[in-house]
Amino acid sequence: MIDDVVRSAKVKLGLTASYNDDDYLLAVYAQDAIDLVNDIRHFTPTSETPFEPKYRGVVSDMVVESYQKQGSEGTVQSTINGVNRQFASSSYSPALLGRVTPIVRIR
Q1: Nearest-CA neighbor of 33 among 77, 11, 1?
Q2: Residues contacting residue 19 through CB under 8 Å, at least 6 positions apart
Q3: pLDDT tens per residue, range 12-53
Q4: What's the CA gap between 84 and 46, in Å, rounded?
Q5: Under a CB-based contact definition with an 8 Å cutoff, are residues 43 and 51 in contact?
Q6: What is the pLDDT of residues 42-91, one digit of tens each?
Q7: Residue 103, Cα to own-chain centre: how many angstroms?
Q8: What is the secondary structure of the chain as a DSSP string?
Q9: Which residues is 83 bridged to in the sheet?
Q10: How far is it, in rounded angstroms, from Cα 65 to Cα 42?
């Protein structure tokens, strides 16, 4: 399932389908995104289901967002060739995190 997320992210990013150095980095970003989604959802992963399948698109988008932020760590805003970019202050944008429905756990 993680391989599917990496393949999906590569398509969205316009990267080549064949294996390259970015695959390892994308897999790390995928695992980070999966861990966060599972934490928000209080989901216990298994080897067959590392995360809830309905969040595959969200996890893929989180991978894309992480990949696109490379080199801009700590940057709040930049303008290059007249293109203004603003970065979220957290690891993922609020709009993306808003797509994950939290599960409240009562102890």
Answers
A1: 1
A2: none
A3: 998 877 777 788 999 999 999 999 999 999 999 999 999 999
A4: 42
A5: yes
A6: 999 999 999 999 999 999 999 999 998 876 555 666 677 787 766 655 68
A7: 19
A8: -HHHHHHHHHHHHT--SS--THHHHHHHHHHHHHHHHHHHHT----SS-SS-GGGHHHHHHHHHHHHHTTT-TT--EEEETTEEEE--SSSS-HHHHTTSPP-----
A9: 80
A10: 23
What Rg, from alpha-carbon coordinates, does the chain have? 15
pTM over 0.85: no
The position carrying tokens 């808003």 is 98
**Residue owning tokens 């007249």:** 82
Decide: residue 84, CB within 10 A, 0-12 exposed, 13-18 middle, 19+ buried. exposed
Q: How far is CA 13 from the centre of its chain?
A: 12
